[in-house]
Amino acid sequence: MVLDDVARENTGRSTALAIAVVPLFFVISGIVIRYAAFTVVWPDHSLQPYIQSLCRWDCSWYVGISEKGYEGFPIPGESNVGRWGFFPLYPMLVAGLRAVFPFPTAIVAIATSIALSYASCLVSWQLLDRNMRAYILYCAFLLSGPFSFYFTTFLSEPLFVLLTSCVFLALKRSSYLAAGVFSALLSATRLVGVFVVFATVIQMFQEHRKRGGPVLSFPRLVLSRPDLLVAILISPAGLFAYMLYLHLTVGDGFAFVHVQRAFGRATGNPLQFLWDAFSATPATGWLPTSPQWSAFACVAGLALSAVLAFRRQYGAALFCTLGIVLPLLTNLASMVRYVVGLAPLVLLAMTLLAAHRATFYAALVLLPATCYFTMIAWMRGYLALV
């Protein structure tokens, strides 16, 4: 879709080259910065320890799914923690690529994540309305920014961001069937991906109203258009397929929900979670604690969602709000990762930073610079980055 748009716009060779080269530059710079941080923490500077330093926390669960699949029930050894909470699409993709390229799983996954993040940058060109400064910052954020390790290791974020971007690009082009297919894949990547169907319905409704259609006739329009109806109905197909698999193999189609208690996630009052996090002040020094960083990320994400709504991007605003509130109902664990993995929020943030020359250049310097320090924190197990 991106290449088709560039060709139809008769984009100049220099612009087309920049679209391809800018993310490649940040791929290389990101690898250099993260490796430099690795040499500070690990005494052995060879490739294998570097791969291990990138693959932390949930990465090991995805490696296990890719190599061994999901456990049956009961789990051998009677463990109460299973892999069912991690959705299957990305591990399946890595397993398929590993069958073609005979390398260790982690290496295949890291290369795949970098390629997916590179593709996300290309898709963002249209979503950013061909704003070159915003495009440069977005590429810097994904590939060599402070959270670039999320998008360059074996986590669901690289695929989730790419598929989310593809959904919204398809909606921007009114390609509803394509949006439905991408939505189905998104719902097989992470649970909150199923909520993107609301963005599809909102886009359909907004186009209906722009053509002068009355509100009450919208359901009749959807029922009379097979393409619209199919796009809506297939959007949660990935989730339903995973639920069927769990039902047949484990006996519980909602095992991905029920296993969350084993990870310490129990439903509670989200406002209480936020209050407790902000109240967890540091015992010494002035730097915020891990819970406070998670709470800041949550509030920042909700604030950016409100800005999306103010800009009349109601579908993206609702999707991002649900993508934050749903995990918040259990606790604030992994909230930083969840927020930065919501593509519409990052696209908006980079657009705002690119609006003025001073903030653009400041961000262009700070994004790669902070990558060095957050990579060290990631390798040392800083809990806010889990």
Automatic annotation (TrEMBL):
Record's protein name: Integral membrane protein
Highest taxon in the source lineage: Bacteria
Positions of transmembrane segments: 16-37, 99-123, 135-156, 176-202, 228-248, 293-310, 317-340, 360-379
Alphabetic keyword roster: Membrane, Transmembrane, Transmembrane helix
Organism: Mesorhizobium alhagi CCNWXJ12-2
